[in-house]
Design brief:
heterodimer, A: Cytochrome Bc1 Complex, Chain D, domain 2, Cytochrome Bc1 Complex, Chain D, domain 2, 11 helices, 3 strands, 4% strand, B: alpha+beta, four-stranded antiparallel sheet
Chain lengths: 305, 478
Amino acid sequence: MCAKKVTTKSEDVGTTGHQWDGIEELNNPLPRWWVWIFYLTVIWGLGYTVFYPAWPLISHATQGIYGPSERKAVDDDIAAWDAKNAEVKAKLVAADVNAIPADATLKDYAANAGKAVFNTYCVQCHMREGQGNPAKGYPTLSDNDWLFGGTMDAIVATVSHGVRNTTDADARNVGLYMPAWAENAAPGPMADAASAKLTADQIGQLVNYVLKISGQSADEAKAAAGMQLFADNCVACHGDGGQGNRDMGAPNLTDAIWLYGGSEAQLTATIANGRGGVMPAWSGRLSEGDIRSVATYVHALGGGE
Amino acid sequence: MSDSQNQSLYAAREPVFPRRVKGKFRTLKWWIMAVTLGIYYLTPWIRWDRGPSMPDQAVLVDLADRRFFFFMIEIWPHEFYFVAGLLIMAGLGLFLFTSAAGRVWCGYACPQTVWTDLFILVERWVEGDRNARIRLHRQAWNAEKIRKRALKWAIWLLIGLATGGAWVFYFTDAPTLLNNLIHGTAHPVAYISMAILTFTTFFFGGFAREQICIYACPWPRIQAAMMDEDTITIGYRSWRGEPRGKQNVEGNGDCIDCMACVNVCPMGIDIRNGQQMACITCGLCIDACDSMMDKIGKPRGLVAYMALTDEARERAGLPDKPVWQHILRPRTILYTVLWSGIGVALIVALFIRKDIEMNVTPVRSPLYVTLADGSIRDAYDLRLRNKHSEDRWFMISATSPESTFVLQLEGTNDLKVKVPANETLEQRLFLIAPRDSAAAKAERTPVRLWIEDQGTAEQPKTDRVSKDTTFAGTGKPD
């Protein structure tokens, strides 16, 4: 008969020799076609090493006659996406900068592309979501206070040329500093920028005046004395009421936002030793499309004007 | 030391040539085959009107648009828990049926069984019944063998093609795809899927057959844990049958060793050896044995559905337990309760789900932003879903027992956004707590965000959905 009984007695097939708690495993053979498939996978595996990079040699490895490369695959992917985005990118570069946020298509593309640009080039200083780093004076980009303006064209200009750098002639505030007002300030451009030298007492009076106009608790007597010092030395940049001046990147001293901190000690340090933050120019490193993209992203972080 | 050193690595398959059999279980299997194959092949062709711009296929897995349509139900990817629930129910259902009635799934409803049955039907039609097939198997290749094999394989391939063909229809509009397939303009994935399924059907149903159940399928192993001595399964009444041998010889049992039960078995096993892993409990040996018992004038039921406890009771001269006592046991009741509990929960979830939905992800880096006037602003990323088939405007608002907030939507001066039909929209929301307000100073304030569907002109429906989240303030109470 063809339909023979299935043989599963240990004397027929033997055991694997494995034993656990008295339970033995019968060494039933595999069906023949399973074994064929096993040999096929071995052949397949060898073929794979011929077609794909595999065998290590002294200085490199065999590259495979099929010559695949993950680098090339990524490059091809990027090229394919660039080609797909070429049209909208061209539109982005040609568009009126201030009209980008209102154009749904451009904004959608630019904000997403800009996020990638931001997280590659900007996030190291300005931190995630543009939260800034007050300890180092890297401005918060998601609030609604701007040193040089928060409109699209102002952001694009700042990103393109940077601030006080030595590489871009059009950088903002080249040679302009928050002067170091202390009489014992370290020599340098910031000390040179001070039109007068102030004593520690005078600086204390000035600090209390700034505390007062920014709505914080201050020593009234010192603040009153500081008012004249402010009028003499500070209004040229920060304005009569301390509202700041974006043409010079002079911050508004009456609001709740401080680039280097608004406490008495932090203000004293700022006035005594001066400030002069630097931002690199990106026009040489980023394309116009990328700059516009990142500006759109920053504009949409919550403070765009 | 292993004692299998000189043993061959593999064994040739023992070919199985199931004989044709008639009986109530065979009839039941024909009906189940017709119904299950009918459901499989015809379901993609059922139409279901969902209105314009929506697919009109009753059952459709729309991978491109990430939607699953099942008659009046539409499942979005985030509602995948419905599918998970159905899978758990399928698992529990399998447990329930196995603990009550053994491997009924394997014997009657498993696609491997159904398609193998169909393939054997074709084989029998082309090559004849068991003895003819054995003869053909053993004879040398000649014109007759080539003709029969070629015809059989051709029909198998056609069945495989239809199987693969039906499968791809579940994933796109069936009439359009059929038209494209015929004209050679369908997507390559359709052809590749059909080719793979044609091959697997051809190979699994035509050649691998019982080996899939014995070697490839995990279920025969799991079933051992699902079955117990009260489970109804197929057994051989050895107390009645043994010693097997010639009829009417004094001392012999009822089994005349005619091999009918073995010859009809699609798994190629002998049920008289007792419960075994390869048995799929298809019931064909019962039909074979019953017809033989009828012929020799002995009572039916030498091979029958029975539980192990029944066997012991019969040996002791006691009557069988009634079937309901085998089926209604704590174990099966527990499975039923779990199964129906999940089923009820899924149905309730299906009816209470809304046509609009919102997910809220608070932006936590940074926790908050101080604005120039000293107010504190938090950002939230909203995912707004509109399941209606037309665009809807969502009005956004926020309520909090402890504070009031100024709301601002990124990119618009309005507090409402248009969510396109059948889509998810991502929108950033800003909540601003005025300077010195309780929320600005507190570390955390609970806040509930609302979306209100503005409806359409004809149907100014106002569905409301809310999500609770928190507002992060400075945490400096001064």
